[in-house]
Every structure is written in C-alpha cells, then in structure tokens.
C-alpha cells in the first residue's frame, strides 16, 4: 500500500532512504535547508522543499502531521535533530524515526518520544564484525542484547538431514524461521523438510545458543 513519507536531511543516509522509498512506489517529501543537497534527490522524491526543519510554523505549513512516517536524518547537527524531533512529536506526527549519532543523542531521542532510533554506522559495524567472526554467518540482525537472527550456511554434515533430525530446538534452543535455496525461500519450514548443503538457514535464538548451534550443529 502506498504510504506518505517525509525525509528531513538529505545526507548520505537520508538520501538513500528517500530514493529507496520512492523506488518502492511511495510518496516522499524531501526536506533540507541546503538547496544543493535537495537537488541531488529531486528525481527521487515526489516533492522537495527547502525548509529549516527546526521552524515549527514551516513544518506545520507543510502539513507534516498528515504523513505516515517522518524520518529525521539530520546527522552532525545534533541540536537541530533533537529540536526537530520534539516539534514533530508535539505537532502530532504518529511515527517519527530518527538517525542518532551517538549514545548521548540516542538517549535524548528516547526521552523525547522518537518512535524508532537508528544508528546506521553502529549497527552496520556490529553486522560486519559478526560476518568477520564467522564466515558461515551471512547476515546478522540483533533483536535485543541477548537475542538475534542469523543466516547460516548449511554444511555437508547437514546434507539430507531433516529439521527434526537436526533437533535444533531441543538441542540448541534455537528456531529455524526460514530456509533459503537459491532464489527459493521456504518461510514456514516443517520438521520433515530436508536440508541440503549450501542451503541458508535463517535461525533465531539466544546468542550463546546460536554460537553453540553453529559450532556443534552445522
Ligand atoms: P550522512 O552521514 O548520512 O551523510 P551526516 O551525518 O553527514 O549524514 P549532516 O550532513 O550533518 O548528516 O546532515 C544531513 C542533512 O541534514 C544535510 O543535508 C543538512 O543540510 C541537513 N540539515 C541540517 N540541519 C537542518 C535543518 N535544521 N533543517 C533541514 N535540514 C537540515
């Protein structure tokens, strides 16, 4: 379903969010106080306006309240990012997603009611470290401090094993959410489904259990 997004701040992060949403077929309003930055996304936004996003009346005149999501991607200017987020919540925007620069910024954003806080460099750094830690991990998503979802490549040992034979849940306390084979994705694997080597298993669990599964089960 088509949604209405406003992206404020068109640095590297904001402009890539803007372009991707536009390619996905959504309405995107791009906002920046720098005309040059705005021109860079003019072909990838439904509308674009030069505005200071810390100016309450300017935000109201854009009808910002009516957008489904507003993404605040003002990076280095932490004060502006905080002020803008506060104004958006006061105006009554339902979903405000904000890019945070550091822990301090993150904490303040939490306190003033940002609905989702993203830290692209921090999060990507963690994912890359996990790829480096184990070459079998294709992707890594942190759900909380203790729980995560990983994509693991099945080995020869797993070839022709069913999920029930692997006994992932009872032995390791992990859940196989999906099995990818080439471009096919089995999103509700049954216990009798057979794995072949090089399949990619999408597995959710406690970090320690996932480590154990990777070391002993695969
Ligand atoms: P990235 O790492 O994603 O490139 P960044 O951390 O370098 O981002 P900045 O350049 O600090 O991000 O800011 C992103 C954009 O936000 C810039 O294009 C800047 O012009 C815009 N911006 C900063 N302050 C405001 C403001 N008050 N109103 C509107 N846009 C703003």
UniProtKB/TrEMBL annotation:
Coiled coil: none annotated. Pfam families: TrkA_C, TrkA_N. InterPro entries: NAD(P)-bd_dom_sf, RCK_C, RCK_C_sf, RCK_N, Trk_Ktr_HKT_K-transport. Residues 2-118 form the RCK N-terminal domain. Residues 135-218 form the RCK C-terminal domain. PANTHER family: KTR SYSTEM POTASSIUM UPTAKE PROTEIN C, POTASSIUM CHANNEL PROTEIN 2-RELATED-RELATED. This is TrkA family potassium uptake protein.
């Amino acid at each position: 379903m088509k949604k209405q997004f406003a992206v404020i701040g068109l640095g590297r992060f904001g402009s890539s969010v803007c372009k991707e949403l536009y390619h996905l077929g959504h309405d995107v309003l791009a906002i920046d106080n720098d005309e040059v930055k705005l021109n860079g996304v003019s072909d990838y936004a439904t509308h674009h306006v030069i505005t200071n996003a810390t100016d309450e009346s300017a935000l109201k005149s854009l009808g910002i309240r009516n957008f489904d999501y507003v993404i605040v991607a003002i990076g280095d200017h932490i004060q502006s990012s905080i002020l803008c987020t506060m104004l958006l919540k006061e105006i009554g925007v339902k979903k405000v997603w904000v890019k945070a620069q550091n822990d301090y910024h993150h904490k303040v954003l939490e306190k003033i009611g940002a609905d989702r806080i993203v830290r692209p460099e921090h999060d990507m750094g963690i994912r890359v470290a996990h790829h480096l830690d184990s070459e079998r991990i294709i992707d890594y998503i942190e759900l909380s401090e203790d729980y995560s979802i990983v994509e693991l490549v099945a080995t020869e040992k797993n070839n022709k094993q069913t999920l029930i034979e692997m006994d992932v849940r009872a032995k390791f306390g992990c859940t196989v959410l999906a099995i990818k084979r080439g471009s096919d994705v089995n999103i509700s694997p049954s216990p009798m489904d057979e794995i072949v080597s090089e399949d990619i298993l999408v597995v959710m669990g406690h970090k320690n259990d996932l480590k154990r599964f990777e070391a002993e089960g695969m």
